[in-house]
Design brief:
Its cofactor is pyrroloquinoline quinone. This is Methanol dehydrogenase [cytochrome c] subunit 1. The protein has about 375 residues and is mainly β. The protein is built from two helices and 26 strands. About 50% of the residues are buried.
Length: about 375
């Protein structure tokens, strides 16, 4: 069972009968995407597992009117019965491919002076969400990159009819006057303000360390027919650095999940596509697409060390101990959505759903190849 109409809640209220299928036209839900590709978190005390669902299909939103529930949703589910305790849909009727599948980070922090079980999620849509993971109450929904513009904010007024929903700005909608129009200047791009690259949390600072994409796009939908086994996209994209900014395509930030604020931000020339590692020594590690492993101060973001590996880094920094000595390791080897052009030898700027053109300059800064680089930390 996916949901219980009376017991599964959405922003504190029962989801109700047929809460998902009635938000799709006809039988569109059968081919409507919303799949889960990871990642899963588990709270043994609450006996709940948490994960997100992906984008609805097709990418042409005109072909699937409605909220398209429960795509783009955070799920809290009992692993024994399969019943969802609560759900929260972040991007109803997604128009931009802002999959909601990024990791759910579970922490226990004080909110209003009270110890609270929290879930924090940095979504592709550019908003950082903090929810009470026991109840599904929405506590924070704020932009973790200031250039995010497809919505002005998430409505946090519990008395409002649009409570919990993003307030979409029509200028950046991909549905324009009933026509397939090339909507320009949408931030973030479809690869999101953060994609699969995982964030880290330090219980010493109570801050999250988040690798981000500082990228915008032009998005033109077109009509597409569903054929099993064939691509079902329905949009053409182009990507580029966020305008009127630092000129780069990434930032590495420290985020306060209770306040919903950026504490510090380090600009990067390309998207930060590696995972972050926060350590008890107040040092945070991450990698860059040019191939640098960087170590920064967890409180200030000041760069402490960097090392150029042979290829761009999209892997996750790891640490381990052996015979009483601590090591830090990183796999380098450019690829992923941002590195697909270089990795696959693609030159058409619209290939890779626009990423090839957006990251064309990457070939001047790094090379193909894979290597594990390990560092021994001094005692």
């Amino acid at each position: 069972m996916l949901v219980d109409p009376e017991k599964t809640t959405y922003l504190g209220k029962p989801v109700g009968k047929d809460s998902s299928t009635k938000t799709w036209e006809g039988d569109q839900w059968k081919t409507g995407g919303g799949c889960t590709w990871g990642w899963f978190s588990y709270d043994p005390k609450l006996d709940l597992m948490y994960y997100g669902s992906g984008n609805p299909s097709t990418w042409n939103p005109k072909q699937r009117p409605g909220d398209n529930r429960w795509s783009m949703t955070v799920w809290a589910r009992n692993p024994d019965t399969g019943v969802a305790k609560w759900v929260y849909q972040m991007t109803p009727h997604d128009e931009w491919d802002y999959d909601g599948i990024n990791e759910m980070i579970l922490t226990d922090q004080k909110v209003g002076g009270k110890d609270t079980p929290l879930l924090t999620h940095f979504d592709r849509n550019g908003f950082g969400y903090t929810l009470n993971r026991a109840t599904g109450e929405l506590l924070v929904a704020e932009k973790f990159d200031p250039v995010v513009n497809w919505a002005s904010k998430v409505d946090m007024d519990k008395g409002s009819k649009t409570y919990g929903r993003p307030l979409v700005l029509s200028k950046y909608s991909t549905e324009q006057n009933g026509e397939d129009t090339n909507s320009k200047g949408i931030c973030p791009a479809a690869l999101g303000t953060k994609d699969q690259q995982p964030a880290a949390f330090s219980p010493k600072t109570n801050l999250f360390y988040v690798p981000t994409n500082h990228v915008c796009m032009d998005y033109e939908p077109f009509r597409v027919t569903y054929t099993p086994g064939q691509p079902y996209v329905g949009a053409t994209l182009s990507m580029y650095p966020a305008p009127n900014s630092h000129g780069g395509m990434g930032n590495f930030i420290a985020w306060d999940g209770v306040e919903g604020k950026i504490k510090w931000s380090n600009p990067e020339q390309f998207s930060v596509w590696s995972g972050a590692l926060a350590t008890a020594g107040d040092v945070v590690f991450y990698g860059t697409l040019e191939g640098y492993l960087k170590a920064v101060d967890s409180k200030t973001g000041k760069e402490l060390y960097k090392f150029k590996t042979p290829s761009g880094i999209i892997g996750n920094v790891m640490t381990y101990q052996h015979k009483g000595k601590q090591y830090v390791g990183i796999l380098s080897g450019v690829g992923g959505w941002a590195g697909i052009g270089l990795a696959a030898g693609l030159t058409d700027p619209n290939a890779g759903l626009g990423a090839v053109g957006g990251y064309a300059a990457l070939s001047s800064y790094t090379n193909l190849g894979g290597q594990l680089t390990v560092f021994a930390l001094p005692n």
